[in-house]
Amino acid sequence: MKVFRPNFGACALCVLLTLCGNALGQELSIIVQSTTSTANSGLYDHLLPTFQDKSGVQVNVVAVGTGQAVRNAKNCDGDVLLVHSKATEEHFVASGHGLKRSDLMYNDFVIVGPLADPADVRGTADAVSALQRIARAGGVFVSRGDDSGTHKKELALWRETGIDPTEASGDWYRETGSGMGATLNTAIGMNAYAMTDRATWISFKNKGDFEIAVEGDDALFNQYGVTMINPERCPNVNAEASQAFIDWLLSDEGQAAIASYRIGGQQLFFPNATTSDIMG
What we know:
Oligomer: single chain
CATH superfamily of the largest domain: Periplasmic binding protein-like II
Largest sheet: 10 strands, mixed
Radius of gyration: 20 Å
Order of helices and strands: HEHHEHEHEHEHEHEHEEHHEEEH
Structural class: alpha/beta
Strand content: 15-25%
Shape: globular
CATH architecture of the largest domain: 3-Layer(aba) Sandwich
């Protein structure tokens, strides 16, 4: 069981920011460049009111695919990056665009499909084998195709299969270039398979007769991270307010708030900030 440690520094900073903002008659605000899954799942609606009430910092979320979020952050369009492609995030920091990246929470990816299950993949916990079966059966697979974190993970799994699905683009492999919700709607309309993060699937309203076909593979692990955009590279970054937000997310209170978010009794995200992250 994870033991959280309170971050008194974050609490003190939040109080300081509130007092300063009120004294100056100004509204403190930050922009979070975020993956769509955290926004579409309703997580921010659950988290942000508590942080904003405590800190006086208004958090504005730009929800796009991870690739676009990183590009926006590199262009100094924002203060904080919260996405789910660890290698991309680490490169973002190593190249000087961001400060320390911290693990924040995780869930997993799943492959969903129609009840008819034409590729006979339901019940398998081997994602690579399932994709191979889908390709061999010519079962339609709908991909986001948008350089998002989900798309990056999907392509990594296809590389493990030894199959290049883009060679079948427009045939059994369809790329939407869209977000997760639109991609799921397309897959359902085409009676096709798709990969999604579990949080988006739980919160998705238009499931029809679709269900999770493939889950439980360690390769489907989905880690989220949070990083401040480097204020030395981007002078517009509100470093104090951004650090207050990050510290709160990594603190006992923030981690507990993440864990408490449920839909229909199902937990969508599992906090996993480390002691070193919390203590800065």
